[in-house]
Amino acid sequence: MSKDKISDYSATANSNTDIAGINIDEGCAPSGINNAIRTLMKQLKDFQQGTNSDSFNGPVGTTTPAAGAFTTLSASSTVSGTGFSNYLASPPAIGGTAAAAGSFTNLSYTGTLTGGTGVVNLGSGQFYKDASGNVGIGTSSPTNIAGYKSVTVSSTTGGWLEVTNGTVRGALQNGSGDVTLETRSAHPLIFGINGSEKVRIDSSGNLLVNNTSGSVTGPGTGQAVIACSTSGKFALAITNTNASGAYGLGINSQTGENIYLYYQGTYKGLVSTSSGGTTYGTTSDYRLKEDVQPMQNALEKVIALKPCTYKWKEDGSDGQGFIAHELAEVCPQAVVGEKDAVDENGNIKPQNIDTSFLVATLTAAIQELKAELDAALADIATLKGQA
Q1: CATH of domain 293-387
Q2: Where are the domains of the chain?
Q3: So what's the pLDDT on residue 250?
Q4: What is the Cα–Cα distance from 225 to 207, expressed in whole angstroms?
């Protein structure tokens, strides 16, 4: 058979007696040798370029592989080699039906490394991708939740996922019985929605809600500051959805000073508790006051008050006290809100009263009565002495 390509030749030298039909057997004509060499050179070129149906299909580098770079490398199993680092610029294509088993010592590429959807397992589970696209680090059994792609970090002592720019460090970790989300540097932990900060825990342990500036007013650290940017809305609303439970807000303190109250950043009062009860305090320090004068005509104000009894419309229960707008005419400091006010939905915005503001007026009125009584008793004594 005419040997028209390199793969037609035999591994037994004596069997190769022609090149493309040109006789090179012993005793051949000398003139045929030149033509045979030229034809052999063409076949070698075809072999290099993979033309003339003579592409290479055999083992590569059984002992020491040649240097260069493959343009196409495919295999149905594991491709092995020792030190693939530099490759030929224009090599023959490789794509045998059965690749040799083994592994690359070094594999480098400058383009895009692509492959199928099968399993990737590096370092016996050190890095693992399953056929569904879930990734495991330290495990070959990443969490598989239908409809989701997961990343599972696992070890015998727990998982640790960290992001850092070299200075600021953030970590999600779990240990024996707990899960921790934290910063590993002196920086705040921030939670946001749609790219906007909503909650932060600063480096002092303060919890700031809707307070991106991080400013905290009040004594000590470890506070919870909830800021509301909408006028007329609650900064904090705590309720119990169980109608049978009457608990709305519970605060416990070992110092007795439970709630500090501020107005525009200035301390105004507190709610404190002790074994004897609860005190609602408002600032009354002499250092905060000026132009202090004795109260005048307090008795006239008391006479102008209109104490009354009434029934609540809600449940018909009895009550006693004052009507807010009537009290405001005598002691406006004791009343909050406007008469007949409603909200944007037409609901009543009721006025509120604090009768503690009447204490000074009532005290002054009693003192005025005492003075009048003393004067009357003195006059009576005088008259008795003249009788």
Answers
A1: 1.10.10.10
A2: 6-49, 188-237, 239-289, 293-387
A3: 67
A4: 6
